Amino acid sequence: MKVHSLILTVAFLFLVPPQARSAENDSRADQAQARQDAVIVRAIERISDYDYRSDPAVAEAVMRQIRRSQGTPEFMRLVKRFKPDGIETQLVKTLVGDDRSAAVESAALLLELDAGRKAIRRRLNSTGQAVAVIETLGLLGNGRANHFLAEIVSDAERPYDQRRAAVTGLAKSNDGEKRLVALATEKKLVGDTFLVAGALLARSKDGGIRDAAAKVLPQPALKDAKPLPPIDELAQLRGDVAAGLKLFRGEATCANCHIVNDYGKDVGPNLSEIGTKLSREAMLTAVLAPSAGISHNYENFSVLTEEGQVITGLKISQTDNEIVIRTADAIDRTIPGEEVVTIKKSDTSIMPENLHHITGQQGLVDIVEYMMTLKKKG
Ligand code: HEC
What we know:
By secondary structure, the chain is of the alpha+beta class. The chain has helices at residues 2-12, 23-45, 56-68, 73-82, 87-95, 100-112, 114-124, 127-140, 143-153, 160-170, 174-185, 194-201, 207-216, 231-234, 241-249, 274-277, 280-288, 355-372, and strands spanning 300-305, 310-318, 322-326, 332-336, 340-346. The protein contains 18 helices and five strands. Bound molecules: heme C.
């Protein structure tokens, strides 16, 4: 304690008397104060068990010094050492800034502080900035960051672009890759990211990860069993809109279930504005893995009737008296209640798997190109 007071007394000797107010004096006073703060901070930095918050004057000097050092390496060092209250508000601002190195460093610090983790969570829940924060956590790639990312990839309520960014982030570190494999094994990876997760892990430097991923995240192949390019590469390819339209309405049978601008049948969702809603990658996923992201409104049911017939399709309505099922042929089947033996919800989509076996790789890309043109009007 004696040593502490001695150092502090020495530090306070640098106190400058208040000066008359003028611009020049102000800046001179500022400089003097900066020098004084630096001395105080350097002095107390050496004392490991000194609670700088116990003396308001010292606490203010520390805060001023930290504010002054913003944008320099000194800043992070001081924050780490003093963990000042309320610093998370300042750190969180750099988290989404243009300076990526500062952002990653801020993330590392925030994750060490209780209040910091809460601040990160708040940013993750504000839709406008979530993706930027997720990308920063991915660049950091330590256990704490990956813990957050793992939470995001398993959260079906989050939009695809957030979960996709979290998958990409996890795939950047070996710890993250292992978490992805574990999540996929436990079936906690939300379906619509499993193609991109598999594509990224297939390129892992770690052979064990590549093998594990091939098992739990199988990738779609073409009809002749030739593998398709990984989905992120497939999304880079460009196709022919007219050829895509032709396939959509014809051979590929899409229009049997989807209406586009009043053409087609009403089994699946209307795709007239799908180009506004989905990215190329999400469209490819919808076709290559239709059961990956079945939406609430399109749950597929199988009804077993007294006669032993199984009628499968979307449940349009259900009362005590009857149940109406819309089949893949866009036919509404009404089954009287007394004829129903069981109703089972299916976890596969009514949309067929392997439609890309009909179209081939180029046809698939053409259809996606066509769907990209389907945008919200006006
Ligand atoms: C037998 C009916 C059926 C056929 C055929 C079909 N779909 Fe679907 N599709 C659906 C249903 C139902 C959904 C809703 C979600 C689900 O169950 O997967 C869907 C979902 C989609 C989605 C996602 C829509 C969204 O809002 O997220 C896209 C994109 C899509 N289909 C494209 C196609 C394309 C392209 C084809 C042809 C290659 C096709 N579908 C063929 C029934 C079908």
